[in-house]
Amino acid sequence: MYLLLDLAFPAKRNSKLIAITLLSVLSGFGGAFIIVVLNQAVQHDPAGWVEYFLFAIFASLYGGRVVRIKLTEISNRIVLEKRTSLIEKLLNASYEKIEKVDKGNIRVCLNHDTETISRFAGEAVSIIRNSVTLLVSLLYLATLNITALLVSVAVFGIAIAFYYITSRRAGKDWTKNRDIQNLFYKYIDDLIYGYKELSMKKAKRADFQNDILQSCQINFETRVRGENRFTNVFLIGELLTFSIIGMVIFIFPLLFVLEPAFLLSYLLIFLYINGQISSLLNSIPQVVMMRISWARIKETIEQIENIKVNEQEREDEIEAVPASIRLQLHDVGYEYENEEDTPFSIGPVNCEFRSGEITFITGGNGSGKSTLAKIITGLYTPHQGYVTFNGMPVSQKYLSEQFTAVFSDFYLFEKLYGVSYQEKKQQLDQYLKLLQIDTKLTVDHGKFSTVALSTGQRKRLALLISYMEDAPIILFDEWAADQDPEFRKFFYYELLPELRQRGKCVIAITHDEHYFHMADHHLKMEFGQLKLQVLEGVGAEGH
Ligand SMILES: Nc1ncnc2c1ncn2[C@@H]1O[C@H](COP(=O)(O)OP(=O)(O)OP(=O)(O)O)[C@@H](O)[C@H]1O
């Protein structure tokens, strides 16, 4: 029993399991007692055994019931704990780490793997009960005839060995089956988020359908192949059982002097034990699947922990956010890790950003503007150089907290997370009007009535959220790109200067040449280098 539990969950075991195991043992004894009582009743006076029979049924069923209820709670708690710890790990890991984790795998872990291990309760109950019943029944058999016991143990031993070997082979198919689901989940994302593109072109749809159905086909094949491996083994087990029964009934009487009553007893016990063995063996595929899912969850957690990023574990000495901010990059460099011969790198970059100033970062596509933005906002840790905040080196986490950002690939949550919206109701209404989205949506208890808006309106809503976050540094990554000319003008001539006036440190990545004069500083990226640095002076005189 211990080994079977250990096989399913090699890591930490719940102490409650000991109590549950004892109850299961009681239930298993009850199960074995049934056959002992029946056998005695058949051979002696049945009337004298009725109360024992009822007691055995009670012990078996009641023990089983209590154990099932307890284990259902425990196994679902395991699911809850695994989900919670995975979510905690994900939410506490740096962006840089999560960017490197296979998103499909995260989904399969949180969904499929945790569900698979929730089947633990049912399986554990039957494994423990059947094991005990089997053990006690075998011991009982030993008291009747030791040769009969040895023959039975040999047959069951062979069947178990076949199952063990098969489960290892099936495990390979099921591991493949589990891993193909990572890809399948990615296809589901493509199907949902890329449906616009797919629905327009028949050829595109057909190609995509081919790929997604191929992953479904592999899923089907590996699952069926794994399960079918057991079908043959199951048949071999059945064949062995019937051979033994045949041997005992037809051949043993020719070799030994045996009472017909003994043969009947043996047959009764053997068939009963065979039932326990069968359900025990049938639990093995479930255990193998649970084990794969358990291992994948563990691996994913370890993967998140082990991804090497240059994170600095630093105690930040600056506590309250100062009124005036000076953010400086000192010889900052960063290089992407990928298979390319010359992976893209930026730096060394030296620059600074201050409160009450607007800085524009410009440059061609792929010049490294967004990468620089991710370093500035603390999402990436520089591989070289360092960043200081008011002259003090700070951690990336601290840096991120000082920012609110609207990235070009921003995500709109349907709720205002991390904002005390109750206290800012008036402000919220004011911004909704200012950004001209007050007729499009309402905000109730921090929840937006809709996020189904036009691209420009979605960006305005993202801007509203960053206004509400009210951080000292604001970063816009090509924010105005999707705005109409009127609103673009409003953004550069009204919104940005207003933020500057409020003492915010404003950083905007932009391609809008017409508005370059609105910045106090202009940084230009070229092939990962900061090429042109016009410091001071442009200001808002062109307004
Ligand atoms: N996660 C990543 N892993 C590896 N390489 C990346 C990654 N993100 C970006 N790159 C590479 O870094 C280079 C710079 O990308 P970046 O997004 O910083 O450019 P950009 O100046 O913001 O471009 P654009 O104006 O098109 O938004 C690109 O050539 C890209 O191949």
UniProtKB/TrEMBL annotation:
Compartment(s): Cell membrane
Domain of life: Bacteria
Entry keyword Transferase: no
ABC transporter domain ranges (all copies): 327-542
Domain ABC transmembrane type-1: 17-289
Family: Belongs to the ABC transporter superfamily.
Chief place of localization: membrane
Name of the protein in its database record: Cyclic peptide export ABC transporter
Lineage summary: Bacteria, Bacillati, Bacillota, Bacilli, Bacillales
Membrane topology qualifier: Multi-pass membrane protein
Keywords: ATP-binding, Membrane, Nucleotide-binding, Transmembrane, Transmembrane helix, Transport
Cited InterPro entries: AAA+_ATPase, ABC1_TM_dom, ABC1_TM_sf, ABC_transporter-like_ATP-bd, Cyc_pep_transpt_SyrD/YojI, ECF_ABC_transporter_ATP-bd, P-loop_NTPase
Cross-referenced Pfam families: ABC_tran
Transmembrane intervals: 17-37, 49-67, 120-140, 146-166, 233-256, 262-281
Organism: Paenibacillus oenotherae
SUPFAM superfamilies in the record: ABC transporter transmembrane region, P-loop containing nucleoside triphosphate hydrolases
